[in-house]
Amino acid sequence: MSDEMKTRLLVVDDEQSIRRLCMTIGNTLGYACAEAESGEAALARLDSDTPDLLLTDLKLPNMSGVELLKQTRVLLPHTEVAIMTGHGSIESAVDAMKLGAYDYIEKPFRVEKMRLLLQRMAEKVRLVTENEFLRERVTTEENLDGIIGSSANIQDVLRMISRLKDTRTPVLISGESGTGKELAARAIHFRGAMAKTPFVAVDCGSLVPTLMESELFGYERGAFTGATKSKAGLFQAADGGTIFLDEIGELPMEMQAKLLRVLQEKEVRPVGSNEKISVDVRVIAATNRDLEASYRAGTFRKDLYFRLNVVTVHLPPLRERRSDIPVLVHHFLDRYAKGSQIQVTAAAMKSLLHYDWPGNVRELENCIARAVTLGDGKIIDVADLPPAIRSEQADSGIVKSQDAGTLSTTALADMDDSASIRTGEWRQSPGGKDAGDQPRDAVPKTEALQHCVEGGFDRRWRRPAGGAPVARRNVSSQMLREFRTPKQ
């Protein structure tokens, strides 16, 4: 499991031996553990890290554990806090529970008792997160600005977004072009507590090198030829909100150094000015490059990489989530031909499923927009698809071995659920005829979909007599109705 998905534990105590013991217990439970020797040090860590669990001593130098609890509840309301206390201060620990602490534990404690406390805290965090995710899932497709899918890969992304939306932690979003990195950034911002604050998107690859500094940090009147009045930069425009730095890997080394200073000092100096201006922004960066390889090659600053790479969200390419293609097709048909009842033929859907999509979701969207524009307004067939997809399908003929591996039984079941096939099972009548009340052999839906992908198509497969009607736009249902019986 990656560190981003582990339960994060922060131990705060002025005794190193206690901190090390608690961290050892946390590590044996599979948690990602960190430590702080004082309340001030713990609060400093909260600016750059978001622990799920916080275990603090009641009596700390300068700042008490109760004061740390109060500030943690304000900064990170979903973080569970437990208090460690001596025999003489149990009453204070009980008072801390009234302020929102999960529980307290007396020193000295037994290892097993501490282990059980941490497990109970982690279970509560898991349940709260899962319930919140399930409540949001009903409206995910509408509220997350087009991040659509039910595959395991995309659900992991949605869970990560749900955990990050209320934090100010820097986030690095990685993924190929067209996978939806800006959609993920917008979802993190607009689904959280900062939704009403500014969101400023910056395409670093499109900035003119000579004007890059003035665009990001602003300039004063007379700073250069044509600067007839002062102008605030993009960081100032995003003050109090989020700045999204797309294609961060395209920044030249000189600008990387200046950006690093802004992130460290939280202030900018406009071009032509001697005054620094404080800015409070959450930074979300995105790249289609391997930044770790870039800093090893000397083309990206190592210190900037680690400043940005606090939490990483990776968006999978479309070829790794093929089971989401049918529901994405429905979504784009609703966008470009709303209310038109356009159907996608089984052969066309088969071509879409087998194509490798180097341009990812953006390429699929353009493909559907093209088919709607050039089609007859009733059916999208293979002839309506772009030449690259038609030619690849003609060359392959049948499902490639790698595609067959990708379209596993689980993936096909996901396709089934995504397309909302409403019937409980599909049946084949003897001889392939619709025999009304004659006995029929039941065919599970997943097996039917597998035949649909691997075989040809005709009308020997029927919906059960009296079955619920299937929506005309349901692509998977269309495929099921038309595929033929596999050869014996």
How would you sum up this structure, described in words?
By secondary structure, this protein is an alpha/beta fold. The protein folds into three domains: 133 residues, Response regulator (Rossmann fold, 3-Layer(aba) Sandwich), CATH 3.40.50.2300; 151 residues, Rossmann fold (3-Layer(aba) Sandwich); 163 residues, Helicase, Ruva Protein, domain 3. A five-stranded parallel beta sheet has the order 2-1-3-4-5, with helices on both faces. The chain has a five-stranded parallel beta sheet with strand order 7-10-13-6-14. Strand 3, helix 3 and strand 4 form a beta-alpha-beta unit. It starts with 7 loop residues before the first strand and ends in a 6-residue tail after the last helix.
Report the sheet with the most strands, covering strand number, pairing sense and barrel closure: 5 strands, parallel
Low-confidence stretches: 137-144, 398-488
- The level 1 CATH classification of the largest domain is Mainly Alpha
Helix content: 40-55%
Anisotropy-based shape: globular
- The end-to-end distance, rounded to whole angstroms, is 43 Å
Looking at the structure, the CATH topology of the largest domain is: Helicase, Ruva Protein, domain 3
Count the DSSP helices.
Answer: 21
Nearest-integer average pLDDT: 79
Q: How are strands sequenced across the largest beta sheet?
A: 2-1-3-4-5
> β content, as a range?
5-15%
Summing up helix and strand content along with how strands pair, one would put the structural category as: alpha/beta
User: What gyration radius follows from the Cα positions, in whole Å?
Assistant: 28 Å
Work out the number of β strands. 18
